[in-house]
Amino acid sequence: MCSARTTRVTIPDVKPSPAVLPSPPPWPRYLARESLRAVLRPLLSSAYRVTASHADRIPAEGGALLLPNHLSYLDPLVLSLASPRPIRFVMLQEWVDKKGVGPLAELFDSIAIVPTNAKQALRAIGESLEEGHLVGFFPEGQLSRTGAPTEPLRGFEMIARRSRVPVLPVWMDRLWDSMWSFHGHRFLGKKPHALAPSVRVGFGRDLNAVGPLGVAAEPSRKGLWAGWRALSVEALKERLRSGCCQTLRRRVRRLAPTGHGAQAALEGMEEERFQKLAANAYQLSEVDFMTRRSRVLLEWNAGREECLILLTLTALLRVDLHLIPAGSTDGDLAAAIQRHRPETAILLDASKRVQPPVVSGTTLKSLESVDRARLPETQPNVYPQAVADGRVIAFTVPHPEIDGAELRHQAGWRPGSIGRLLPGFETLGGETLAVRGPSLGNHSLLIQSAQLDSEGFVMVR
């Protein structure tokens, strides 16, 4: 049995602290670690039903690098449950120094790094991989505050090129809606919304794998994005196959508001059509589009598919939904917002309005066609949700607040963009961006003169 150890990377001018701390005797530490795992595993399994997909892609032995998206504080524990092998996680030194975290980090052989000392950090991770460890590294460097992945840091590319070990993208699904994420615009202090919710972890194909022509691939941020997107599509397909659509459809009928034809809108709808609507609703539930159990005002048109999708989403998230007929005047809309005080008001084609009402405490969002979905540049208080073929394909939100000096800025929208592409879509690049996914059925959506940037925004030239 190998001796376990924690690698600490420090800045040279900090007062003496060795790069590698002395390890306790191996057997006491091993027994303590395995005993704690034996206690934590059933507790966590009772709180979250974790399903692993393609765990066989993790090599049975030898070094390998896992690159998961980062949604919640529980991600390392959930990923540990899904993995057939123990994982050494890379952690920031400032987190290891926090009370209560350090002893656990040392017990589970975490690799503590200081971002300002990149050379030693890369060396520590590389040595762990060379020793045959399975290393978990969150390439975003922080938790997502929009639900969608943020720009991956460049460090993993250098690690992958130097070590030449298998590099696997990992997709953590259904954790955005947990009490440990930024859902609801705060990280902590929330109540669980369900007993033992389902969580899925998908392991992607090796980014270092040799291609069909015998040429080794080069792990890159573009390759990581492609791996994450393919896994998010697979997760959505699996969710639809699980039979949850029937339950969701019954819930929509039960919770839909009376009046305006909302309850009748789904009557007689073919199952295949509803499944596509539900797929788009599930996509929106995985990002910061609507907060669970909040109050929402929706400008309603039963003839628009995107309105049916949002009706399904509101049932999924159990929000307090209020409807106002499409085409209502700005005065009627302002009066409805004042009366219901919603957290979010969703309009139809707000770009055509002279002056959408601005009410403190209410975020205005608008369903816009892709050629008009750039409202923050002209109407800073309205956030467009790009719609094509009756599906919401990209979203924008206000820039998430930064709570703490250790958090980097995350953009909620970007000039020249129609928004972040939703998880559950994958793309084919070129002069024309091709988008496909379960909510679109068997066809691809073509967006002219568009491409994805390094943060997942759809940039239109």
Q: Using the coordinates shown, work out and report the CATH topology of the largest domain.
A: Glycerol-3-phosphate (1)-acyltransferase
CATH class of the largest domain: Alpha Beta
Main pleated sheet? 9 strands, mixed
Strand order of the largest sheet: 10-9-11-12-13-14-15-20-19
Topology:
Elements: E1 7-8, H1 26-47, E2 49-53, E3 64-68, H2 75-82, E4 88-92, H3 93-96, H4 102-107, E5 111-113, H5 118-130, E6 134-136, H6 155-163, E7 167-173, E8 198-203, H7 221-241, H8 244-255, H9 271-285, E9 295-300, H10 305-316, E10 320-325, H11 330-340, E11 344-348, E12 363-369, H12 375-378, E13 382-388, E14 391-395, E15 417-421, E16 426-428, E17 432-436, E18 445-448, E19 450-452, E20 457-460
Parallel strand pairs: 1-5, 2-8, 3-6, 3-7, 4-5, 4-6, 9-10, 9-11, 11-12, 12-13
Antiparallel strand pairs: 7-8, 13-14, 14-15, 15-20, 16-17, 17-18, 19-20
Helix pairs in contact: 5-6, 8-10, 9-10
Task: Explain what this protein looks like in three dimensions.
This protein has 461 residues and is α/β, with parallel strands linked by helices. It folds into 2 domains: 7-239, Glycerol-3-phosphate (1)-acyltransferase (3-Layer(aba) Sandwich); 243-460, 3-Layer(aba) Sandwich (Rossmann fold). The chain has 12 helices and 20 strands. The protein has helices spanning 26-47, 75-82, 93-96, 102-107, 118-130, 155-163, 221-241, 244-255, 271-285, 305-316, 330-340, 375-378, and strands at residues 7-8, 49-53, 64-68, 88-92, 111-113, 134-136, 167-173, 198-203, 295-300, 320-325, 344-348, 363-369, 382-388, 391-395, 417-421, 426-428, 432-436, 445-448, 450-452, 457-460. Strands 10-9-11-12-13-14-15-20-19 form a 9-stranded mixed β-sheet, sandwiched between helices. An 8-stranded mixed β-sheet has the order 1-5-4-6-3-7-8-2, sandwiched between helices. Strands 16-17-18 form a 3-stranded antiparallel β-sheet. Helix 10 links the parallel strand 9 (295-300) and strand 10 (320-325). Helix 5 runs parallel beside helix 6 (155-163), helix 8 (244-255) crosses helix 10 and helix 9 packs across helix 10. The longest helix has 22 residues, at 26-47. It is globular. The chain starts with 6 loop residues before the first strand and ends with a strand. Residues 1-25 have low confidence and may be disordered.
